[in-house]
């Protein structure tokens, strides 16, 4: 038995399912990471993997980037956690405000789940309403309001929600309306019908790997502004990835509030809510004891190490040509995967923007969640598992591209894509 086999056996005893969350490589394919550097992971047996999972997205610079390592080591020598104001936290907040169009102030959390949760809470306080509207298939973390109609196998008619997890109170369903992504007419009708009840409309401006249709975000912005309903962008994935100003800059639509995580902390547990002072004032502890006050605190909020890592990451992203290089790498990978699909005669779609995209094994264009249900999930699982066998790791439903991926890495990956799609074609 190898050290890795022993660790996997031990993990099965002390971790539910033997894993850390929802990600699985597949039977006989699980491994334990020993090290990550640049675009690669190594397991306990010394096997190298090309990494397109990137820690579920935060490692945009790649693993162990020298600038981030240096910043973290420097801060660690000064202390790790204070639960008090610290210079890196202030500096990072200043930089987020400079970068993000909707941001005048920032409130830190430790995770993206917390960020979207508190964005909705502060929207309720500001709007003095309780219901929220979200979009079917949109993922906003693991809190009760977010886990509504993320992945229903038999979706209800709009706007009825479906809980995606055991343990969510049925009462939550009465506070959530569900709309179809990329269907502006239906979203407009629902907002018009329920605006007196709505505290906020929340969405991923780029939903998982589904590109917003022309005019969809602009129309949503117009109808929410008309009815004075706060529009919340979940930019956990798109923030600092699509552009330095995130999806707001990339798509040219500015919401009322936004949630950020992943890239903003350079691989450490940190996220935030960003928005205008008129809304963010509800977090001010000077209001404690009044109906205006929104309680929000956390032991590691504004952690100095995470903020130092975030500052170093954003410093690298501000360098000239950074996003051009990221999009060039992502475009080569995305177009190469699409070409391999055509070569092997598969009914499949490559959906998404160059920094993050994925394969859907269906002949239907991927415009919303219900279109994804036409894709063959078992064959996608086979695709992912065949990649792992050949030393490539990706998310269950995403291929994340990093700035550490080189032309050589792309060439190697495209060769592996071709091999795997040949297997899928032969088994069709």
Describe the structure.
This protein is of the alpha/beta class and 428 residues long. The chain has 2 domains: 3-64 and 322-426, Aspartate Aminotransferase, domain 1 (Alpha-Beta Complex), CATH 3.90.1150; 66-317, Type I PLP-dependent aspartate aminotransferase-like (Major domain) (Aspartate Aminotransferase, domain 2, 3-Layer(aba) Sandwich), CATH 3.40.640.10. Helices cover 37% and strands 14% of the residues. The chain is built from 13 helices and 14 strands. The strands form 3 sheets. Strands 4-10-9-8-7-5-6 form a 7-stranded mixed beta sheet, sandwiched between helices. The chain has a 4-stranded mixed beta sheet with strand order 1-2-3-13. Helix 2 runs antiparallel to helix 9 (304-317). The longest helix is centred in the last third of the chain and has 22 residues, at 322-343. The protein is globular, with a radius of gyration of 22 Å. The model has no long low-confidence stretch (mean pLDDT 96).
What secondary-structure arrangement, pairings included, does this model have?
Blueprint: H1 3-14, E1 33-37, E2 40-43, E3 48-52, H2 66-76, H3 87-99, E4 105-109, H4 112-127, E5 131-135, E6 176-179, H5 184-194, E7 198-203, H6 216-226, E8 231-234, H7 246-251, E9 257-260, E10 271-275, H8 277-280, H9 304-317, H10 322-343, E11 349-353, E12 356-360, H11 369-372, H12 377-389, E13 392-394, E14 399-400, H13 407-426
Parallel strand pairs: 3-13, 5-6, 5-7, 7-8, 8-9
Antiparallel strand pairs: 1-2, 2-3, 4-10, 9-10, 11-12, 12-14
